[in-house]
Structure formats: structure tokens, C-alpha cells
Amino acid sequence: MRPAKAVEEFLANYNEEVVTHVMKLREVLFADLPGIKEQLDVPAKMIAYSYGQKYAEMICTIIPSKKGLKLGFYKGIDLPDPDKLLEGTGKISRYIEIRSNEQINSPALKKIIENALGAYKKRTG
Could you tell me if 88 and 95 are in contact, meaning their C-beta atoms sit under 8 angstroms apart? Predict the structure, then answer.
């Protein structure tokens, strides 16, 4: 079950554009990641999407901020990224800065999500 009310309350502190993008991005994630679980982490200011409680079962995170929105990928450093969408310099994770509805619905973003799901399946085999 999606904690929609809790997510709405969490997003109340962000501007309308960020909220709109988060809601559209959630729709894409639920559509492209069958059976995914949504976990709100208020202290970390993010919404995690995983198939269990372990880090290895995490696919991605939505990270809203006052300045915008990022979609972070666990083990993003290992994901194929032919369209060069992934940013960041960390040892494990990478993120995509979300700037528009068109980007949320783009084939390139859907491909990264598909690659992240494939990587999860390999990790948990």
C-alpha cells in the first residue's frame, strides 16, 4: 500500500513544482517497478523505493529539496547510462536532476529505471 497521505504531508514544505514532479515521478516508478515498496524517510528527507528492507533491495530514492528534485539510484555507478543522465561523484550512488515533466516521461529515464531493476535482479539473483 502506498503511504500517499504521509507523502503529501512530507511534501507540504516544498514548492508546487517540486511536488508536481514528485507525484509524476512516483507514478512512473509504480508503473515501471512492479510490486515496489515505497518507504518515506522523513529524517533523511527522501522517499525510498525497494523490494525489501536491505540496501541491496533498494532501487532508487526521490530526494526533494528547496532547489529542485533528484532521483537517486543505489549502485548507480554500475548502471549503463547511454544518454549520460547520471550525475554525482560518490563511490556507489548516482542521481538524475529532474527538471521537467518531459524528462520524467522520457524514454531515457525509463531506460535507467529498467537498468536499475535489472541490476537489482542480478544482485539478489
Answer: yes
CATH number of domain containing 18: 3.90.1150
Q: For the chain, how many structural domains are there in total?
A: 1
Name the strand (E) or helix (H) holding 60: strand 58-64
CA–CA distance, 81 with 85 (Å, rounded to integer): 7
Nearest-angstrom CA–CA distance, 18 and 78: 28
**Coil, helix or strand at residue 47:** strand
Residue 124 has pLDDT above 90, yes or no: no
Does the pTM of the predicted model rise above 0.85? yes
C-alpha cell at 35: 510490486
